[in-house]
Amino acid sequence: MKFSVNWLREFVELPSRVEELAELLTLAGIETEGIEKRGANFDKVVVAQITASSPHPNADRLSVCQVDDGSGQTRQIVCGAKNYKVGDKVPLALPGAVLASNLKIKASKLRGVESEGMLCSGKELALSEESDGLLILAPEAKIGAPIGSLFPEDAIMDVEITPNRGDLLSHFGLAREIAALGGSSRCDDRGRRSAPSLPLESKGGGSVRISAPRDCPFYSARRIENVTVGPSPNWLRAKLESIGQRSINNIVDITNFVMLEMGQPLHAFDADKLTGGINVRSAQEGETFLALDGKTYSLGADDLVIADDARTVGIAGVMGGEDTGVTEGTRNILLESAYFRPGSVRRTARRLSLPSDSSYRFERGVDPAMILPASQRATELIRELAAGSPSPETVTAGELPAPPRDISLRYARCDRLIGLPVPRERVDQILTGFGLKQAHHGEKETSWNIPSYRSDLQREPDLIEEVVRVFGIDHVPVSDRSRFTPSRDADRIHDLETELRFKLKALGLNEARTSKLIPRNSPAFNEDAIALRNPLSEDHVALRPSLIGGLLDVLERNIRAGAESVAVFELGRVFVPPEGKERRRLAFVFWGRTNTEVHWKAQKRTFDFFDAKGAIEEVIGRKLSFRRSQHRNLALAAEIWTEDQIRDHIGLAGQLTASLTSKIGATGGVFVAEVNPDFPIGPISSERTFREFGKFPAVTRDIAMIVPEALTHEEILNEVFRVNEPLLERVDFFDLFSGKNAASLGAGKKSLAYTLTYRDKNRTLTNDEIAVVHAKIRERLQRELGVELRE
Amino acid sequence: VSHELEQLRDAALADSAAATDEQTLETTRVRYLGRAGTISAWADRMKSLSKEERPIVGRLLNEARTAVAEAIQQNAERLRRAKETSELATIDISLPGTAAELGTLHPLTQMLDRGIGIFRRMGFALAEGPDVETEWHCFDALNTAPDHPARNEQDTFFLPDGRVLRTHTSTVQIRTMESARPPIRVIAPGAAYRRDEVDATHSAQFHQIEGLYVDEGVSVADLKGTLEFFLRELFGPDSQVRFRPHYFPFTEPSFEIDVKSTALKGGEKWLEVCGCGMVHPAVFEEVNKRRKDEAYDPEKWSGFAFGLGMDRLAMILFGIPDIRMFAQNDLRFLRQFA
Fold it and tell me: How far is CA A107 from the centre of its chain?
């Protein structure tokens, strides 16, 4: 909310510098987000009226004006602006004036014509940033008056009021808080004074009825007759406009003014447009209502409305009706001041997406003790400024909500929660400063009466907070006590994730972190994603079911940016349709050259399927099997299986289809993979244990073979191990000769070569022994797979 | 005889020292020590010597043989070194190194890890919870009833089934207390979501480290000590830390923390980095109701909670101008944080 410092000063003494006030509030939890200085306080700048204007004889762009500056003599001023007419009142800088940006004014000749001063724009008086000609003043501005009287200096503070402090949403309320924070003397409570000439009588029943007492415990209405609706006087307009409120007419302005001053929203009905009495009731389901903003709203039984005998005339606490609003022709008004239950107003305002200054305050709870004084103050002003004749009584219904419950504060508890003993007298003094009264004073504990405007104070810690705010958290010492904490599952997961990330980094991959919210037109791999019910933009409409889609966006962006090599991974959560189960996934995208930087010795090659496969094998750390599969987005697709997980595969790897590849703007193959890293959780496992390494030398023998293209490496390997030879330590694949290059082998054939390593852990093997074992394996391959062995 | 042998030895040593390549040296070796070499020939001449002369000449011969063999070996080593050195001398060692390129970790990951590392030194364990949450965990349990003005449904993403994307990681406070008894000392790094216009400082998804410490006698002083320590570790020992009272429904008293450090860009300004406070007793009571016990008796236990905006911290620390860069993953951006 915006506050005028001059307005606050009417209630409370303030520090001389507004920055000091802002600091005081900010450090007390009322954050000042901005300060804007206003006003024009310039010596020798006065209100002048242009009495005549003629073209400059020697310059097309200039005019020669005759102005009345109130001195009785006409002045001649040369002027370059065009936005005025004769009769306008404008600021006149007399010789000797010093304007904004240190512009000094003196009498001089401009192109041969005498000019005794300067007519000013808003910019020259630091009233606006831009200049669009002379600043035209209000017609009632007094000729000869110093300009400062029209634009008194002020500072406008933009203050963030937290949702618990509805009591600060008025100038009086903030002033009261400033006084309590110890920055100044007591706050002038004149807002609650009632003029003796205007007896405040309230009469129950009669023309006001409450049919929904839960949502509206109290309602008051006062009739004011024979009002003259018209523009507001200058002071009122200036006050409202200074804090960004538009002036509408005197009646509406007065209700807004009282709200901004005292915090109680008011509403004025055109009484002649009401039929019969007021009834505060729930809306009828499906009823429609034309509000003051010109829009029609559909209401439900949950919404509280103000109705007359014929129809709904206002959405309680939110907005009045178009039909019963105050207009130029209004003669008699009915002034509403009420208490609506915060939850009810909030629900309606949110459901209708119709927040208003009024609902904003009712939602946060208004001060019940201010309802009638605010009505009274508005009535006085209407009598004064709109010549209205108030009815002697205010008609009321219901009862004012009870004041907040007393709260006990245990001094020891306060010390313990703050971590520092605060003297009791200081605690009492602080709370008393906030308007709390001791209901029962004890040695260890004091019970406090809470003022009606502090409904946010509900429990002991709320009082402790008030103590901290004033006492100052700067005075609270720092403590460094710690606690030994056993690790949790999340620690183990985090450590495994970190290890995985570092392994991938060591492999030369770059980590990406893409948004878990995916766009409407996201590419492949995001089918069936769970859509949000209320997305805000096309960029974030659903929860990602896979990481690959996001990584393909990353690829596309980097290709557009000129990248020649993209190798990225992401480790993060996905939301598995249809329930949105959250699962950890690790995904990769490989495209382009294998080296990011031009590397003078490096082999030049591009990424292929085996780069993706290799990365997965390297980091998953378990034996994996890649099996041919089908996928709509992949030209080459493989499911990834582990030996120990027989129910389902743990991931997918492959090469994008050509159409998808070109959609991304990539040339050459794009290789993707996604796996479930499936961290083992539980007690410390002993996956890493020492194994004795062979002390006796190993012997290696190679096998080269010609096989049909369709026979896989995995099948060959399985066959080799099926021999179950204890001396066979490992098998390494080292050569492949296939495709066009292998035409000499015959159609549909390829050549593979392996090194087999034999070792015994207790002795050195002899050539004869190895020959026997090796022959057994060779024979098995020949017999079972029909391979053609090469010598 | 001995004179003759000495002459031969000296000639051999001189030849060996004069050799400028391994080939010549080998020829020298063969000439003197080879099977038909001139020194070797003396072994035959020994036979023709007298009994008295034989041991004397034999010793001289052995000495000469050893001396020449050693000299040849030393010279061979010298020649090898010279050759090696001159070969390697042609390499331009200013050419670039050729280590395999390392990849990079995302700057947010690095930021989170730094934060986690500091809290772990202070004895915090990790906790986690789902991104998709019930409204109860996100609001009600955190003292933000349906009609509460701070329950900002406008800024909350909903799923068709009524669940929400958590608007803060404070949900993990509830998740942790539901499943574990006090004392609790955890941090929870994770994503949160806000339905808000996206610009240079706001994104739909952002990252926080949530913290919760519940124990007997936890006070504002503990909260202050913990977070001041954290921020000084992060921003340097000379940074200034300021606590400002604030409002959150689930903590009372509540604070926001500002940091000022000359080590940072824009270091003359207070930068808001954290919201925190003492756990509201209503939160403990709501957890107890759910647990159906009195594990979190607010008379016995107190606690503090905090939420640190990690995107913002990373932007401050790394001088990143736009929050959207984190999700764009431009390699020119990522590789700056290698």
Answer: 55
